[in-house]
Structure formats: structure tokens, C-alpha cells
TrEMBL record:
InterPro entries: Biliverdin_Rdtase_cat, Gfo/Idh/MocA-like_OxRdtase_N, Gfo/Idh/MocA_Oxidoreductases, NAD(P)-bd_dom_sf
Organism ancestry: Eukaryota, Metazoa, Chordata, Craniata, Vertebrata
A Gene Ontology molecular function term of the record: nucleotide binding
Domain Biliverdin reductase catalytic: 228-338
Any one GO biological process: heme catabolic process
Requisite cofactors: Zn(2+)
Alphabetical list of Pfam families matching this protein: Biliv-reduc_cat, GFO_IDH_MocA
Entry protein name: Biliverdin reductase A
Top-rank taxon: Eukaryota
Entry keyword set: Acetylation, Cytoplasm, Membrane, Metal-binding, NAD, NADP, Oxidoreductase, Phosphoprotein, Transmembrane, Transmembrane helix, Zinc
Cell compartment(s), UniProt: Cytoplasm, Cytosol
Amino acid sequence: MIIPGVRRTARSPDFFLTGVIISVLSLMVIITMLNPSYILKENKIKCRVGSKDRGCQSLSFPEALEGPPSSPGTWGGHLRWLPGHPTQPLEEETKMNAEPERKFGVVVVGVGRAGSVRIRDLRNPHPSSAFLNLIGFVSRRELGSVEGVPQISLEDALSSQEVEVAYICSENSSHEDYIRQFLNAGKHVLVEYPMTLSWAAARDLWDLAEQKGRVLHEEHVELLMEEFAFLKKEVVGKDLLKGSLLFTAGPLEQERFGFPAFSGISRLTWLVSLFGELSLVSATLEQRKEDQYMKMTVCLETENKRPLTWIEEKAPGLKRNRHLSFHFKSGSLENMPNVGVNKNIFLKDQNIFVQKLLGQFSEKELAAEKKRILHCLWLAEEIQKHCYSKE
């Protein structure tokens, strides 16, 4: 049948098929271009250590760069939070689609609890561990090797060109000396809190790190805990009337771990991170050395003149626990509910450290973190002075 006005041609079906093929191919190209792994591969950027070039972000952790907004008057935003929940497993949330351009040689100083966890994380296949190469560990004890990792001398760790990073996991009293030695040797440093047992020493070490162009990172895993994430959500936007935080645990040797305000600085960091900069009103220290009993009571004040009480109580038989009470105009929060198990908090801290090595933190973020850490160390030193002045 011939339809008037329509011209038939034997080639019309070929033209139609060609158009379909071109459309399908175009769609495949678009999908490929939108694939994150393709983008990461095509935009591969060589990132120098400590670079402030924001392009370095394409090398790692693209999903973990931003966090929940800070509330007014709190110390939020200085850490990189995983999306949705601050303690989601790194294996699920931090996907890396490219091999690192280089690996940083690492030595772990001290193989106690924290040092052993650091060695475990460095040896296991995690996103941030892919940027790090564990060379060995340093210890005052003659151990030979731990989990197949060789022991090396401090002198070799300081002089080795292979070693570029030191994890300081030793007793608190030794942190300052180790940090200074490794910075002077041109190494980057990750140190367990507290960085030092004096505010002035910490400030000097930070100046030294900046002079050497090296990263100095103080670990604060307490800010990566489920409990802190819960508290931050509870506190945001609320007007505090008064609050208290009591921590109990077994005794610690002050000669090794420092004055209680320093050894317990993670609790002080919680209060500062939740309520902003604090001022010291009073501090007392009760001790019975024959019973290994210690109780430090600190009265603090927020910028709005709201009272906060921090108590550290330690003695044989006391269970490790936190008791808190925060009263707001809109209600009260008494004690901590069961909010889940803390997973991979040291690994998450390593994640943050590697981001710093790759230059993925802005100057503003680094300055805010430094200000908070130095403020807490300054408060700890003032508390120590007040307690000793009463003796």
C-alpha cells in the first residue's frame, strides 16, 4: 500500500539502527565519565607532603572530608567526620579508588596498649594504612620483634632515611623528648595525648614543627567515640545552666603519666569541645598516698559564666567509669546511656593524621585544632598550679 506524501526508501531502517547505536554509545560514555573511579584515575595528582593544594583531596578519603556543622560556642568542625554518623566503620565509608603515589615509612615508639593497637592497624589493609609502611618499633625493652615487626634502635629510627613518621606511644612523661628528637630529625609526628606535661613545651614543639615543615598531630580518640557523638547532638543549641563530669578509675603513677589534669586531659577536652573555652575558678587535690587514693576537684566556668565541675577520682578497686550531669533551660541530661560500641577509634585518628600528611586540612582547621589543644594544656597547667599552691 502506498501512502500519499510518504517517500519510501530501502535505506530508512539502517539510518534508524545507526541512530540507536550512537545513542547507546553516548550513554555509555556519560556513565563512564560519572564513575568516581574514572574521575579519580583521570585526575590523579601528585601531592607533596604538607601541601596546601586542595587538589590533593583527589588522592584519598573523598567521602570523609566534611562533618556536621559546629554549634555556636563549641569546638566542633576541627575534625573530619564520616557522613551520616561520626563512628561508622572506615572500611564501609572511606573507599579509595587509586593506589597511593607514595608510602610514608613509620616507626612506632612504645609497644604498650596504644602502641600495639597502632602496629595492628598499620599492618592491616585499611585505606589510610595504604599510605603508610611500617618499618619497625622502638622500645626500651629487648623484644626482638612483635607480630613479625622488627625492633630497631632509637638512633637508627632518627637517622634512617626510610623512616619519615614517628608514632609516639610511650609514657606521658617521655612524649616531649621523643617529639623534639624526631622533629629535629625531620620526621612527622603522631603522639598520644597529652602531647606534653606543660603548656609552654607544647607551644615550643608546635613552633618547631612549623619551622621544620612537619606535621605534629596529637591523638584525641575521645572525640571519635560514640559517647561524644551522642553528647554533641544533645548539647547543640541548648543553654547550659550547670554541669558536672566525674571520672573514676584505678590509680596511675604521676611520675610516668603526669599530674591528674594532664593524664585526664581527655575529659577536659570533652568539656571544652562541648561548651567552648573555659576559665578556672578553683581546684583542689586530695591524696592519701598510703592508700593510693587521689581526688582532684576542679571548678570551671564557661564564657557565659555557667559553672562546670570536673572530678577525677582514682583508687584501687574503682571501676573505670564516667558520671555526668548537664542541666539546661530546656531539660537535663543525667549519666550516659548505652550508645553502642566504639569501633576503630585509633584507626579513625590515623585517618585524620594521613589527611594532614597529604595536605587535606585547611589552615583554618589546623589553627582551630591547635588552639583547642593548647587551651586544654594551659588549663591543665593552671589546675596543677592551683592544687600545689594549696599544699
